[in-house]
Specification:
Layout (H helix, E strand, L loop, with lengths): L7 H8 L4 H8 L5 E4 L6 H14 L7 E5 L4 H9 L3 E4 L16 E4 L11 H18 L4 E7 L6 E2 L15 H21 L2 E7 L2 E2 L5 H10 L4 E2 L4 E2 L2 E2 H10 L9 E5 L5 E2 H12 L5 E2 L5 E2 L5 H7 L6 H13 L19
Parallel strand pairs: 1-2, 1-4, 2-3, 4-5, 5-7, 7-12, 8-11, 9-14
Antiparallel strand pairs: 6-15, 10-13
Helix pairs in contact: 3-8, 5-6, 7-9, 7-11, 9-11
Length: 343
């Protein structure tokens, strides 16, 4: 069994270690980078990863700016210690974005998911209206916009997942507003010549949160695992952050769109049973498997950026060790099994 981590510090160190491919991309001439929404689940490690990759590429003078409300002082301190310039800023509340730094590269990570069913106007403001202001502020930059696989329809597991050529058919206000985000950035590309990459992610795993944390924690606690949604995709967060950053080199006025997930289509029941074996727990399966699920085909991503350095099976083993060691969790469930689009 693959040896995992004994602390958050060890996990963080692995997540922010750049690959040779990322360093090579940055060495070609990266420039300053603004990360909008850098205080979320993926943002802090993405910011430090970018800083480390720039250093390794000999571009120490390029600045990484992390922009967020930053509710947790510890996150700000950790980023500053890593050489990231922290900018506390509320992107929604501030009418003007002029105070934000200029940069040739921008990563847009801001999003509203949970609560979208009860406050849909908030989801549309954050996911669709705000991107228009960002696209205007950074019209001359390359923008990598993080999106979601939720914009696709549910597909059979046997299909291998929805490819980028499948027409979006979002279910629910969250997914619809995310498609709105994509369309706004597409408009900027078409009308103002902004170079854009759109990255449709589902689902990142960093052991403190994610689909595997949800399933593994349920098994460990003796709670039933529903298999109504019988299959799922996951991807190591270290790889996910790398692809987001490397997608900037593909940003185009034609809008570069890519699915970001792991190459495996996982059986939820098989994952639960594996956790049962690793954690020494009996597994209770409930529900009736439905014929479709939210699944993405990441073949294009694999062809461009290579396969993730960590497989799904290794992630399951690491996750079990993390749970058994009672290491910190974010207590933010992914709600990956939701089928009606209401988050």
């Amino acid at each position: 069994m693959s040896q995992g981590f004994t602390s958050e510090a060890e996990l963080e160190a692995r997540l922010v270690a750049p690959s040779a491919g990322l360093v090579e991309d940055f060495a070609k001439g990266a420039g300053d980078l603004v990360i909008l929404g850098a205080g979320g689940k993926m943002g802090p490690t993405l910011a430090v990863l970018a800083r480390n990759a720039l250093n390794a590429a000999g571009r120490e003078h390029d600045t990484v700016y992390a922009v967020s409300r930053f509710g947790e002082a510890s996150v700000r301190e950790r980023l500053a210690q890593a050489g990231v310039e922290v900018i506390p800023f509320d992107l929604v509340e501030n009418d003007s974005l002029d105070a934000l730094p200029d940069a040739p590269n921008v990563v847009f990570m801001v999003g509203a998911k949970f609560g979208a069913a009860t406050s849909p106007s908030w989801a549309w403001e954050v996911n669709a209206a705000l991107p228009d202001r960002i696209a205007r502020r950074y019209r001359n930059s390359a923008i990598a916009a993080l999106s979601t696989g939720n914009v696709y329809p549910f597909v059979p597991a046997s299909s291998g997942g929805a490819s980028e050529d499948v027409a979006p058919a979002p279910i629910g206000e969250y997914a619809q507003s995310c498609l709105g985000r994509e369309r706004v950035f597409e408009f900027a590309a078409q009308e103002r010549g902004t170079r854009v990459s759109i990255v449709r992610l589902n689902y990142a795993v960093d052991l403190r949160y994610g689909v595997l944390a949800d399933i593994g924690s349920a098994v460990h606690a003796g709670e039933p695992v529903s298999v109504d949604t019988a299959n799922v995709n996951v991807v190591w967060q270290g790889y996910a952050n790398e692809v987001v950053l490397r997608s900037l080199t593909h940003a185009s006025t034609d809008v570069f769109t890519i699915n970001l997930t792991g190459p495996e289509t996982l059986s939820v029941e098989a994952v639960a049973q594996r956790f049962g074996g690793l954690l020494g727990r009996a597994v209770t399966i409930v529900g009736e498997p439905q014929p479709t699920a939210l699944l993405n085909d990441s073949s294009r991503c694999m062809a461009l950026f290579g396969y993730p350095s960590v497989s799904a099976q290794t992630l399951i083993e690491w996750q079990a060790q993390w749970i058994e060691a009672n290491l910190p969790m974010t207590a933010k469930p992914t709600k990956w099994a939701v089928r009606d689009g209401k988050f």
